[in-house]
Amino acid sequence: MAGAGGYGSRMARVFSGIQPTGDKHIGNYLGAIRHWVDGQDEHECIYCIVDLHSITVPVDPAQLRQATLSLATLLFAAGIDPEKSILFVQGHVPQHMELAWYLNCTATMGELRRMTQFKDKSGGQESVSVGLFDYPVLQAADVLLYNAGRVPVGEDQRQHLELMRDIAIRFNGRYGDTFVVPEASIPPVGARIVDLQEPTKKMSTTGGTEQGTLALLEDPKRLQKKIMSAVTDSDGEIRYDVEAKPGVSGLLSLQSAVEGITIPELEARYQGKGYGDFKQDVAASVIELLAPLQARHAELAADPAEVERLLRRGAERALEIAVPQVEAVRERIGFLPAV
Ligand code: ATP
Ligand code: LTN
Known about the structure:
This protein is mainly alpha-helical. The protein is built from 13 helices and 5 strands. A 3-stranded parallel beta sheet has the order 1-2-3, with helices on both faces. Strands 4-5 form a two-stranded parallel sheet. Helix 3 crosses helix 12 (275-301) and helix 3 packs across helix 13 (304-333). The longest helix is centred in the last third of the chain and has 30 residues, at 304-333. Mean pLDDT is 95; it is low at 1-9. Bound molecules: adenosine-5'-triphosphate and L-tryptophanamide. Adenosine-5'-triphosphate is lined by residues 18-19, 21, 27-28, 30-32, 153-154, 156-157, 191-193, 202-207.
C-alpha cells in the first residue's frame, strides 16, 4: 500500500487542507493556494476544506456553513480544477474522524503538548477544547488517509508535518508498512507573510489585525489603503533586515512573492527611493495579482448550486480512496471484521 505513487516519487500524491474560517488572506494564497494550483499538472492532488478542524474553537453554525461554501468558491476561482484535482469538504468523508481515533492511540500527550500552535492558541488556558489539543492528530489523519507523499503548506505548519511523519513511522513500525510517510513542501518564498500592522507576527485569519491583513476578496481601494498604512520605521532605507526593520522586510517579502523577483533585486530597484513609492508599487502588484481571482470569484459566486455539486463529486472521489484505506488500517490493528 505504501508503494504506489509514494514517498519520494516524483508522482507522489499531494494533499493539503485549509480552514473555513473568515476571509482568507494573501498569506494563504502565497504560502499555499497558489502552489496547490501549480501542483495540479504534475501530481494527483487532493485538497480539503477542513471544517472539522475549524470547530476546535467556537464557531457560529450559520457562519460555518457560509464560510465553507464561500471558501470552496474561492478555491475554484483561484484555479483549483475539479477535472484535474479532488476538492472536498472534510466532514463529508467521516473516515477522517475514524482514522484520527486510531492515530490518537499512536500519538502521545507529550508530543501534542509540544505543539507551538496549541500553545499559542490556548494561551495556557485549561478551558480550551480537547479538539484544539488533538488538532494535529486529525491533521495527520487527513494526509495518511490518502497516502499522500507531499503536503504543500506555509511555514507555520512545519511542526505539524514533523509530528505527522513521526505518527506514520510509529504506526508502520507497530503494525507493518501501512502509510506513506509524507513530506512537507514549504515554498522558498512567501511561506510566511507577516501582518502589516504587527510585522513580527504572521498574517492570520483569526489572530491578526484587521488593518494588517490583506483579504483575497477585498476591494482594491481598501487593499491600497492597508498597504499604504503598513508599519515601517524612521530610517527611510528599503533594506531587508527582519530584526531591525520588520515592517520594511515584511513588505519586501510580500513584493518578492507577488512579483517573483528576489529581495536583493528589489533592494537594488528601490535604492534611494522613499517608502511612499515602494508601497505604491507593492499595492499595485497585489491588486494586479488578485484582479483575475476576484473577477472569477464574482462569476462563480452567482451559482452556488454548481459549487455544491462540485463538492459532492469531490467527496465521492475522496471516499473511493478513504474507505478502503480505513478498512486496511482496521485489519492491521486487529479489529474483528463486522461481517
Ligand atoms: P489562522 O491563522 O487563523 O489559524 P490561517 O490564516 O493560518 O488561519 P489556515 O486555513 O490555517 O489559515 O491555513 C491555510 C494555509 O495557509 C496553510 O498551508 C498555512 O500554512 C498557510 N498560511 C497561513 N498563514 C500564512 C502566512 N501568513 N503566510 C504564508 N502562508 C500562510
Ligand atoms: N492545520 C492546517 C490545515 C490543515 C492541513 C491538513 C494542512 C488541516 N489538515 C492536512 C495540510 C494537510 C493549517 O493550515 N492551519
